[in-house]
Structure formats: structure tokens, C-alpha cells
Amino acid sequence: MADLLKEILKLLPEGKISDTAFEAANIVLYTKDKDYFLDNGGIIRSLVQQFKKRIELRIDPSATVDTEKAEQIIREVIPVEAGVSDIVFDQKRSRVLIHAEKPGLAIGKMGALLQDIKAKTLWVPIIKRTPPIRSQLIENIRAVLYQNSEERRKFLDRVGHRIYDGWVRERKSEWIRVTYLGSGREVGRSCIFLQTPESRILLDCGINVSSEKDAFPFFEAPEFDLNQLDAVIVTHAHFDHTGMLPYLYKMGYKGPVYMTAPSRDVAALILLDYVKMMKNEGKEPLYTSEEIKELVKHTICLDWEEVTDVTPDVRLTFYNAGHILGSSMAHLHIGNGLHNLVYTGDMKFNRTRLLDGCVTRFPRVETVLIESTYGGKDCFLAPLQDGDEQLKNIIKTTFERGGKVLIPALASGRAQEVMILIETLVRTGQLEKLPVYIDGMLWDIAAIHTAYPEFLNMLIRKQIFHKDNNPFLSDIFHRIGSAKERQKVIEETGSCVIIATSGMMEGGPIVEYLRQLGDNPHNSMVFTCYQAEGTLGQRIKSGMREITFPVGSKTEIVELKLEVHRSLEISGHADRRELLSFIAKCMPRPKKIIINHGEASRCIDLAAGIHKQFRLETIAPRNLDTLRIR
After folding, report:
1. Labelling 202: which of 31, 58, 350, 555 has CA 20 to 30 A away?
2. Could you tell me whether strands 314-320 and 307-311 are parallel, antiparallel, or unpaired per DSSP bridges?
3. Nearest 5°: phi and psi at 352?
4. CB of 232 within 8 A of CB of 245?
5. Alpha-carbon distance 485 to 439, whole Å?
């Protein structure tokens, strides 16, 4: 680090820089010279090109305009139509965060308003979107970051030191290996341990929701030592990829977790819901909200295609995975051109109603770690149009007999896909206007979707930005916020659609709806997502018709008479055809494919299919297998 900064400072005018700092891999230079801050003659841009690092010049915190006066100037510069809702000053870092309903109006043409604010206040303005659906969670996350800004500044500086201070481990040769602490020939507890001579990195850190016996990653594996862990990279927010993250902090981890901003927000919501659900069931959660707060404070958010160093010999770039909001493939450039690895996480090749399909072009790639949830020979999902027609007919038929339609849905991804589908059917006149009740954390996650429209597909973005017709704001949707409201829907409301968590029916409000509505043959239930082995959803889908529900200290047996629709899967996973298409279109063509995140038979099927079709080296490792990939 000292050498890097020394080289940078050599190229800057003497006496202009008052301080330097790291914000993870980014380098921040501070100056007390107002004129130099506003116009450095392009020297900072030339340093970025020369050193291939993100370098930013800011005014020294002591030289900024007083916050009260600065806020007055900001409100005068930004038009009222932008809907500025909040202005927060990050005083230690000379930044001001401006929350606006219409960020484009706050930024101005070609960033003109931001430049005006910068010139008049000397603060660096950062525009954040105010979601049209208010989200207490987003507000709480932002509050945690603002209230702990000094602690976070020190944390980011420590991360930068780890990246730039050079090698801390002895290097005799170059090698790369991965150990499967989870997701080897199974769906769930995704957790892969990547090692190089210098780096120790976890790829995801989740829980297997369908198993009590084998729920957690194999942290006791001899290769893994939490005290030596450098970084965690998270592909998306689902619990089977994030469920153990707060536990790392409970056990003493102090390092960074890299993910996209929507992944951070959705993950925080899912993790908090897990703690609440465990307490409601009288069980002790693995961690508390304090550890979730620590996770938020240690998260470093990246945009897609933003390149950053995470250790001295590993560089990370996220690419769209098409699975859920903010989901990413992790591209790792390891060593000085030694090897390039892509970890797909969960992925979707084709575009959905909500998201664009996954990226297939990378700067370089030699090894791909790919999921196989639907990798089996017989795993072919119906086209989107078939699902539209099927759900439309189910709703019409159920309403004609006076029933309710229950849809268990994964909190992030499937629920929003279903919401978009029903809104489209109503808006285009294919269905009469109908009430849709949203229960569980689904409303909060819909709010997060409205905060990050840039992560949605082009059609939805166009609808939101240009037609001012946000589908999530449709008046057909009604939030269920309490047990009393839930009971009213069950007892008093007529025909309606109820979308509720959890998607695999392992807890959540959907279980209560099923207990009270399951014995009515007029009602219907539609499965829209993957049902893991051992879950209640999988058992019902396989034909179970008598369910025992706990009710306080007693149990209640309910005979299921409602109509169960098993085949409508609005999946965010790629099916067999899509997985093979991804390999075919992957550029450049990888040399090795490692199969994970699928039932054993599907992992083996996909490995055989890829080898047969493309003549590539394939392997489907088991948990605790360690593979040397270079």
C-alpha cells in the first residue's frame, strides 16, 4: 500500500493532498484546496488509467460548507419535482446522500445539478432512489450505515490495507482449489471455499431449509479456518445462499461480504424474518438481529460489471444471473492472469417477466461452477406463455365456484413474477379486476424492487420510467399486515388470490391459510416454485392429503380437499435446455465445468450431458470434496 500511494503522490502537485484513505479497493485522496478539488486538470483521470484503480478526489472534511447551509443550497438547486425526501451528510467522508423519488431530475442533464451542488457546497453528492412503496427495512439499513459511518470508514480502510499491503502468506507456487462445504450434489446450503496461496474466500454461505440433520455448511472441514477468511462473495439473497452469513459474525468474522445493493436489502429482510419466525415457534435462532446488523455494516455493494480487487490476487466482477433481483454471477480473475473462474450461483438463461436473462460473455473464463437445480434429463419447464394461460384458467375456474386461490411463493423472485403476471392479465383484460392479497415479507420485497428498477428487465423499466405505470403499485394488490387482517381474508373475503410465504411451505403465513382453507374443495393451491425433498410443499405435491398442523400446544389434522395444481412452475432457475444453451453461448468457451446445487442424479445427468455435447471436462463433486482447478 505504502508503495502504491507513494507512486500516486509522486505524480501529484506537492502540497495539494492533505490525506489519503482506502474505501475497500478504492483510493480516496483529500485536498484542502477548493480550486484544485473543482478542477485538477484531468490528472486524477490519468492516474486511474495508469494504475487501473478507482481513484477519487474529495475535499478535506474540514473545508466543506456547513451542513445546514449546504442542505439549503441543495434544496434550492434540485427542482421540487425530483421529490427530495431526505438529505444525509457523511461528514467523515465529505459525501452527502440525497434521497429522491425521481433521481434523474435530481442529477440533471449530463450531471449538471450534481456539478452545481459540488461547486457550491464542496460536498460530493450521491443520489439514492426513494422507493415509491415505503420500505421501513431500506430506511433502517441506510440508518445503520449512516449512524456507524466512522466505524464503516475504518472498516473500509482495513479492507483496503488487506488488498494493497501485499502478500501475507508464503508463496512457493501458484495454485487454486475449491472445497465444497455445501451444495455438492444437493440443493441448499451453498457454500464453496476458494483457496489460493494468498486468499481464503467463501462463495455464498447458506442453509439447507429442507433438512434439520444436514442444514449447515461443513465449517469443521480441515481446510476451513474462520480466522483466516479474507472475504465472502454472495451471488444472491435466497436463504440457501445467505442463511449462515450472520453466524460468521457471531463467531468472530470481521471481514467484508460482497454483493449487490438489492441483494443486501433482500437478504437482510429474509434473515430478520428467519429470526422472527424461529422465536414465534419457540425455537432459539442461530443468531440475533445484532449479528444481521453487523453483516449490513460489513457489506460492500457492487454494481454489475464493476471490477474490484478483494484480495491481493483475486479480482471480482459481478454479472447479471437473471435469477432474482440483484442476483449475480461472480467472475473471479485469479493471480496475474493465472486463471479465470465463473461461479453462476442460481441462474436463468431466458428473460422472464421481471428480469433479463443471464450474461454469457466474459473477458476470460477457464472454469465454470454451474448450478443444476433443473439439470436432469427430464427437467424441461413450460414456456412462459403456457404458464400465463394456465394460471389464468385456474383463477377463472376457482372464482366461478366461489373459491380462493392460494399461491405459496418464494419471498424474492417468484412472488414478484406472479404479481407481474396477474397485473398484466388484469390490465390487458384477460382477467376481470380481482383482489390479490400479499402476505408475509412479500410486500417489503416488492418495495425493494421499486427501489432498484435498474436491475429489472427493459420492459418493466420502460413501464416504470416512461409510462409512469409501476405494476407493483396496481390497486389490485392489498397488503396483509397482521394476524387479524389475515383472519378477515380467510373468513369474510370472497373469491381472491392469496400470495404468501414460504414457497416450500416450511413455515410462514401460507401454512395458516392452508390449515383453514385446505378442506374446502372450492379452493385451489398453485405451486409456482421448486419444492425441495422433505418439505411440506414437496409432500403435498407428491400426493399427501392429510396434514397435521400444530395449534398452540395441540395438533389439528386437516384433510386436504382443495384442488392442487402441481405443474405451474414460474422458475427463476434455468432448466436442462437453458443450462446447455448457456454453455453453448458462453464466450470464451470454458475448459472445465463443475456441477453443483442440484439433487445428486441431476448433477450427474448434467455433467454427463455437457461432456457428451461439448466434449468438455466435467465433474459433479460431493460435499467435502476438494478440487484443484489450477
Report:
1. 350
2. antiparallel
3. -110, -175
4. yes
5. 10
pLDDT over 90 at 318, yes or no: yes
Residue 67 phi, psi (nearest 5): -60, -40
User: Cis omega (within 30 of 0) on the bond before 588?
Assistant: yes
Q: Which cell goes with 21? A: 484513505
- Domains of the chain from N-terminus onward: 1-59+141-165 (3.30.300.230), 64-130 (3.30.300.20), 166-378+573-623 (3.60.15.10), 384-565 (3.40.50.10890)
Overall residue count recorded for the chain in this entry? 630
Percent of the chain with pLDDT over 90: 70
**Structure confidence by residue, pLDDT tens digits, 184-209:** 999 989 999 999 999 999 999 999 98
Q: What angle do CA 544, 549, 552 make, to 5 degrees?
A: 175
Please give the C-alpha separations between residue 469 and each of 132, 213, 419, 428, 475, in angstroms, as whole numbers.
12, 47, 14, 13, 11
Between CA 487 and CA 150 the distance in angstroms is: 46
Neighbours of 336 (CB within 10 A): 7
Q: What are the tens digits of pLDDT across the range 206-250? A: 999 877 788 999 999 999 999 999 999 999 999 999 999 999 999
Give the confidence band of 2 by pLDDT, cuts at 50, 70, 90: low
- Weakest mean pLDDT among 114-123, 246-255, 511-520: 511-520
- The helix (run of H) or strand (run of E) holding residue 566 is none
Phi, psi of 355 (to 5 degrees): -130, 155
C-alpha cell recorded at residue 385: 406463455
Q: What are the distances in angstroms from CA 113 to CA 77, 79, 83, 128, 624?
A: 7, 10, 14, 14, 54
